[in-house]
Amino acid sequence: MTEARRKVxxxxxxxTFGGRLVKLLLDEPRLTLVVAGRSQESASRFCREVGRxxxxxxxxxxxxxxxxxAQLARIVPDIVVDATGPYQAYGDAPYRLVExxxxxxxxxxxxxxxxxxxxxxxxxxxxxxxxxxxxLSGVSSFPVLTAAVLREIARDMPRIDEVTAGIAxxxxxxxxxxxxxxxxxxxxxxxxxxxxxxxTEGYALTETMRYTVSPPGRLPLHSTHxxxxxxxxxxxxxxxxxxxxxxxxxxxxxxxxxHRMLNLLAWLVRWRxxxxxxxxxxxxxRAINILRWGEHRGGMFVCARGRNALGQPAxxxxxMLAEADDGxxxxxxxxxxxxxxxxxxxxxxxxxxxxxxxxxxADYENLFASRDIRFGWxxxxxxxxxxxxxxxxxxxxxxxxxxxxxxxxxxxxxHRAEGVAGVERGRGYLSRLAGxxxxxxxxxxxxxxxxxxxxxxxxxxxxxxxxxxxxxxxQHAGRGRSQWLLCETFGLLTFGLALIxxxxxxxxxxxxxxxxxxxxxxxxxxxxxSHEASEGGRFHFNVEISHRLTxxxxxxxxxxxxxx
Length: 564
What we know:
Blueprint: E1 6-11, H1 16-24, E2 31-37, H2 40-50, E3 56-61, H3 68-75, E4 79-82, H4 96-104, E5 107-110, H5 115-120, H6 125-131, E6 134-137, H7 141-156, E7 159-168, H8 177-186, E8 190-195, E9 198-203, E10 208-211, E11 224-228, H9 233-240, E12 246-251, H10 256-270, H11 281-290, E13 297-307, E14 313-323, H12 330-343, E15 351-354, H13 361-368, E16 373-381, H14 389-394, H15 403-409, E17 415-425, H16 429-437, E18 444-455, E19 459-466, E20 469-477, E21 486-490, E22 493-502, E23 505-515, E24 518-519, E25 527-528, E26 530-535, E27 538-547, E28 551-563
Parallel strand pairs: 1-2, 1-4, 2-3, 4-5, 5-6, 6-15, 7-12
Antiparallel strand pairs: 7-13, 8-9, 10-11, 11-12, 13-14, 14-16, 17-18, 17-28, 18-19, 19-20, 20-21, 21-22, 22-23, 23-24, 23-26, 25-27, 26-27, 27-28
């Protein structure tokens, strides 16, 4: 006898977030997914376009402003998911669907992003318990994933004073109109937050910061401009961790020029030049979904500062990157995770509350496993200056390197290495000129090579000698827009290099460059195809530098062994 399917009513099921939730659950044969909204035709078209699925798909018309009791009685759901919004604009009776679901006896979940709406859900706790149903609000990355990360950080950092978090969506993520309506509604307006130990007010989209999302050993996002947003975390996280003195949460949409234009308009609201940006929501929606360029990648970070178990000042940050089309699914994954756990017999207890404790970080890691989503930790403390440079930049990815590569970069004392290399130089006039400017060695085979590593407290000077020809560079950990990069300086030129661990090799990829401190466009930068590896128990290097205008400039490869 087959097990009866659980019926999930997804209100807004063919919309941006509801549609992604449906797609996340398509492989679950224990579910009937009712794809619902005001248009029966749109619901039916969505179900047809999805194609074959293990779950049963049922299109339905559902109007959350209509007779909710009659509609629920007709559909007979076990779980009601509200994926519509904007939750900040639900009018005089914002919880009509919540109340109807409780009356009917169905569990309820939503992706609400409004602080007041999510916090207000607790008013229905007694009613939900009496009916034996759970009612969870704010079931999305903010605040569920944020809270899960902070609980994990608290294991190693008993005292957390300051938390900063942000989400940086891909420019190709496809932002829904209701999300834009919500942002336009609160842009420039006061939002409640905790700062310096007391509750105060910030102004959404007028407070900004920069941060680089960079899981250790992965290609980081470019330094991102984040703006304060009104999300449930601002009020809910201090409830979970009252000792937190400051909490700031931002969003970093790109292209940055459009983001900064939105900042400027938010200031007009703050200065009361215009009453609200809500009338422009449609224009913003069209602009952000048409004027888009940049890398098709997104990410998120949660950074906590406080004291570790030894009482030392410490900073722990969790970084997550999602490639291509996988990132837009993350906000809907919290509901996916709760429903999958419910099907396996792990049901949330009855009652109505914000969803901050609904999932653990391990639950999220299971959800990420089938997609191109990578994450990792960066931990620092007052003793980090005693760490070798490469270990500081690589963070936890240091342990993924082969032993011979770690040995080459693992000393805090000056040292040297010797070996043999082959050198190839570009043939063109411009490539020869560039190579000579950097004093790269002449072309040769099996030439003796030595590298002297002059290790200081904040930087390393590398002097490379091929035969009788030498050239040097200075390396240090990047700061500011070069955060989490290894910066290497040749004369007036400085290159910000991402250290990427892949296939047992350490790859060095140019992400920024400047001349005399003046940033230059990345598309004009030289291309570096360089890696370090272990072969036959020896440290091997392969460095290739080229440019679109010159072709190959230099390529040198060989091996080194540490010397006393």
